[in-house]
Amino acid sequence: MPNTSIDHARIVSLIWGIADDVLRDLYVRGKYRDVILPFTVIRRLDSVLEPTRDAVMNMKAKLDDAGIANQDGPLRAAAGQHFYNTSGFTLKDLRNRANATRLRQDFEAYLDGFSPNVQEIIDNFELRHQLPRLTKADALGSLIEKFLQPDLDLSPNGIDNHGMGTVFEELVRKFNEENNEEAGEHWTPRDAVRLMTRLMFEPVADAIPSGTYRLYDGAMGTGGMLTVAEETLRHLTEPKGKKVSTHLYGQEINAETYAIAKADLILKGDGDAADNIKGGPEYSTLSNDAFAGQEFDFMLSNPPYGKSWKTDQERLGGAKRIIDPRFVVEHNGDPEYSLVTRSSDGQLMFLVNLIAKMKQSTELGSRIASVHNGSSLFTGDAGQGESNIRRWIIENDWLEAIVALPLKMFYNTGIATYVWVLSNRKEERRKGKVQLINATDWFTPLRKNLGEKGVEVTQSDADKVLEAFNAFEAYDDPDHSKVFDGVDFGYTKITVERPLRIAGIDPNRVYSAKEIKQLKEHGVRDESAPPVIRKALPFAATMDPLYGRYEAEVGGRMRVVEYEPDTELRDTEQVPLTEPSGDYADGVEAFFRREVEPYAPDAWIDDSKTKVGYEISFTRHFYKPAPMRTLAEIQADIRALEAETEDLIAEIAGDH
């Protein structure tokens, strides 16, 4: 049978019909998936295993007789698949059970006979939890009967592995559309995934040699990103005569979503990949890294946005005690540079997890595509986790580009989203540079919204993004692409202090901390009063008013002193890292002399509080002010309003 989209649609329609026929009065429509998805998997596996059932049973008997405990490998070999069933039953054997209780017992024994990798799928789908309800309503037999109907041929003779995977993915998509509020959490639209994979692969497609490549997704959802990435890589390399094989790896915390991903891979005949993905509630990527110390060639992710990771933070030891080498690194001379974000949003932590898995020793290194919302660009003050992550990425020169996607791209949110493209093997022309691509108006409207999703990025839309990316600085459209030096996004945050001035104090003595506290509580602030001295420095100290070291007479001798800052007058300033130094030591001093000193001559910089931060503002770089209205247009509006007012007055006068 040819595996065309028409055949796939027919099979999906038949399976969808089973849900309506058997489950309509048992489940609300949004819960059909809890039964239909695992049953689809089981029916396919059942039909694949049928020809080797006797060989598996014979092997099982031999292994048991020999007392061999580790039976998985030999049983897979006997089945000729990456999975098997040792129950002795097939679904056809169960269809004739007249007694509902006996059917349930035999069906449970049938489920128990599956190999451990399939057990994991069954457990994460929680299929056994559905059996009491199905049995009570006498629906289990009907389900089995419907899945065995002759026109629904899920055997390899009826549909090949790739086609079966397509059918399963289409079922998942339809269920996700039914549950719009959930869809976006675990399902990234295919058009977004295709764009991400193109950005990851196409710039280096010619440089990818024949060989084996490892692909990884740390928030894999239903696994669609990995499978599309695999297809994209094959599509790009096969025409060039290259022999490329891939190994897929991923991690997913949501049990059902993980079950879907694992099932999809097994249904496609990719049992090795199914063994390489880890998931379920105990497998949170941030606190339980299933691939610690491993490296991957290509990585992509759509991590959760704005979702608390407080539980993970506590498992890692708490915000201040995290020592995981992914999140506490050495950077800029700091051996404990923290990449730990606020617990309210862990999306950038997922990006850090990908970076930690970059290949260091290969010629191609690693490439990453990760999609985030706008907060990842600018949240977090200088020195905080989010800003530290941006600084770490840009100062290590890993960030190639950020692409602003159109609004209404995702199923459960219409917010702005951005694809970050990273590489630890930048081509020469990109070194030290970051490209921002504004693709917000490169989209095609959908005829009908899918949840919040109202637009798609078609191939021609994606072509425009890739054209801008590949042209880089030669792209002549500043409304859609701009190239910056990485340092352009950095700034120094300085704390500007002014001295505490209290009426009646002695300007020639040092006040203790206790005395200063009392002055603050009971003294009267007076701008004309002398500053309060809190510390006299050693005699060898040198004066530096810029950083709060002044000369004053203390106890009859000239000393270098520090004044007590007045917290009510404290201020902060952001000085661009690119601020020119001019006639001064650096840009910070130049900024201070120009912007602060003329207005507050007694101010100084508290150097102990100085921090470097990074933020990326698409709005600032691509903002287009609305054109000013002409005077003639404004005058015309005023005249129209005057005429309308006169008409109303005339009407009122006429009524009287």
From TrEMBL:
<dbReference type="InterPro" id="IPR051537">
    <property type="entry name" value="DNA_Adenine_Mtase"/>
</dbReference>
<dbReference type="GO" id="GO:0032259">
    <property type="term" value="P:methylation"/>
</dbReference>
<dbReference type="Pfam" id="PF02384">
    <property type="entry name" value="N6_Mtase"/>
</dbReference>
<keyword id="KW-0808">Transferase</keyword>
<dbReference type="InterPro" id="IPR003356">
    <property type="entry name" value="DNA_methylase_A-5"/>
</dbReference>
<keyword id="KW-0949">S-adenosyl-L-methionine</keyword>
<protein>
    <recommendedName>
        <fullName>site-specific DNA-methyltransferase (adenine-specific)</fullName>
        <ecNumber>2.1.1.72</ecNumber>
    </recommendedName>
</protein>
<keyword id="KW-0680">Restriction system</keyword>
<dbReference type="InterPro" id="IPR022749">
    <property type="entry name" value="D12N6_MeTrfase_N"/>
</dbReference>
<dbReference type="InterPro" id="IPR029063">
    <property type="entry name" value="SAM-dependent_MTases_sf"/>
</dbReference>
<dbReference type="GO" id="GO:0008168">
    <property type="term" value="F:methyltransferase activity"/>
</dbReference>
<feature type="domain" description="DNA methylase adenine-specific">
    <location>
        <begin position="161"/>
        <end position="476"/>
    </location>
</feature>
<keyword id="KW-0489">Methyltransferase</keyword>
<dbReference type="InterPro" id="IPR002052">
    <property type="entry name" value="DNA_methylase_N6_adenine_CS"/>
</dbReference>
<feature type="domain" description="N6 adenine-specific DNA methyltransferase N-terminal">
    <location>
        <begin position="13"/>
        <end position="147"/>
    </location>
</feature>
<dbReference type="Pfam" id="PF12161">
    <property type="entry name" value="HsdM_N"/>
</dbReference>
